[in-house]
Amino acid sequence: MPRLSTLSLHLSTLDSRTARPAAKVADPELWAAEHKVWALEVKRRAGSRCQWHGRGVHLFADRIVERKGGRAALDPANGQALCPMYHQVKTARTRAARMEA
Question: Per-residue pLDDT averaged across 7-26, rounded?
């Protein structure tokens, strides 16, 4: 019976300590003056407190409906102030829902 050659001699192992992912780059729209004004208004309206748990911490101005979702991107009514933990939870849920669609 003929022997099968293996590829192990031709493949190298990826060392995750030295192979870094590409740097994350923010959307230029998020650096615009209009966006900064929108974010400040959303945080001010929330009383500088996370709208999910009410504690005052570092906040993200988050869109309730994503920019691509059809609502005006800079409408303060489409914004909520979230702490980092709840912003991550909300973003993961939104991403999962988008993947299912």
Answer: 72
CB neighbour list of residue 9: distance below 8 Å, 6 or more residues apart: none
Please state the three-class secondary structure of 25-93 as a single string.
CCCHHHHCHHHHHHHHHHHHHCCCCCCCCCCCCCCEEEECCCHHHCCCCCCHHHEEEECHHHHHHHHHH
The pTM score is 0.69
Domain ranges of the chain: 49-100
Q: Which whole-number Å values give the CA distances from 9 to 6, 15, 16, 17, 18, in the listed order?
A: 7, 17, 20, 22, 21
**Tens digits of per-residue pLDDT, 35-51?**
999 999 999 999 989 99
